[in-house]
Amino acid sequence: MKASLFRSAEAALRRVSSPSASSHLLRRSYCVESKPERKVAVLGAAGGIGQPLALLMKLNPLVSSLSLYDIAGTPGVAADVSHINTRSQVAGYMGDDQLGQALEGADLVIIPAGVPRKPGMTRDDLFNINAGIVKSLCTAIAKYCPNALVNMISNPVNSTVPIAAEVFKKAGTYDEKKLFGVTTLDVVRAKTFYAGKAKVPVAEANVPVVGGHAGITILPLFSQATPKSNNLSDEDIVALTKRTQDGGTEVVEAKAGKGSATLSMAYAGAVFADACLKGLNGVPDVVECSFVQSTIVPDLPYFASKVKLGKNGVEEVLGLGPLSDYEKQGLESLKHELKASIEKGIKFATQS
Ligand SMILES: NC(=O)c1ccc[n+]([C@@H]2O[C@H](COP(=O)([O-])OP(=O)(O)OC[C@H]3O[C@@H](n4cnc5c(N)ncnc54)[C@H](O)[C@@H]3O)[C@@H](O)[C@H]2O)c1
Ligand SMILES: O=C(O)C[C@H](O)C(=O)O
User: pTM here?
Assistant: First the structure.
């Protein structure tokens, strides 16, 4: 997606608002309208991430039906977003009674439901509240839209993804190709910080980020960053790595008790959702980093790496590529924490 989501949305808006469309424009408009029907559900849609994410998904011409669910506040958000003149029909759902309706027929479910951090907290400190929220939402997904792709945003992602997997296994609906921990914000940050330091155009910057989504488990691979830069010292790479790992905390501290990243996360969530929809629609060569079931690092059953997206979700989990010595060290250092977070999620879901 990146800039292209907004270009397509603008183009769609121009087409819709032009009263004297030529036959050429009508043909193009028909092409847009003839994209497959895709229902996207956002769970936690009235929250700090949920609202701007709902807006961005409303701008995405690949979405035909946008379902906004939360425990409170969704009628207002849905009414507001529904006035935007883009393709999708918007519906708001509120409370347990309406969760089934919100999910029925969904191709993609995005979950930013749950509490955010305050200064001084780790993502793992959110486990006690968010694990239960994720578990109950995933139980409903297994019942009402067992074939949907699931994009997990709720923290701690290193544990909530294994929780979701165990819930789906218990329900007999688990398909490892369809469950994704959203780590796109780490990539978004790494690209921004790299472009600033390396003085390359940010729109062209690309940096894979692997591992997990918390502190040292976030491992940006600046040795593979493009466009290549020869003017970064080892100290620069260490500083860029640390800033990427601490990006979430930087925002939590700046917000001083009012939550964590919401706007940049909504952007990142929309980028990743767009990639999933493109994959579902058969667009070739769609690759994004994501925290998925994986065998690329022994002993870590879930791991973030580049993933090729296709008509059934994950088409291929791509390898890590060559790592610098510094990155090899980073990989060793993250294993213990990531393994413990994964096991904590599995234990919660299997024993509660
Ligand atoms: N993966 C990432 O990179 C990333 C980035 C930023 C934030 N997050 C996480 O996303 C989550 C949400 O953050 P936020 O800033 O939007 O928080 P928020 O408090 O602003 O919004 C959360 C929303 O979830 C809703 N909610 C709570 N329980 C629910 C349930 N059972 N069903 C449906 N909705 C429910 C709340 O009503 C609220 O509207 C947090 O856990 C945060 O840590 C993840
Ligand atoms: O840092 C947080 O708690 C939110 C999120 O995981 C982030 O990376 O911004």
Answer: 0.93
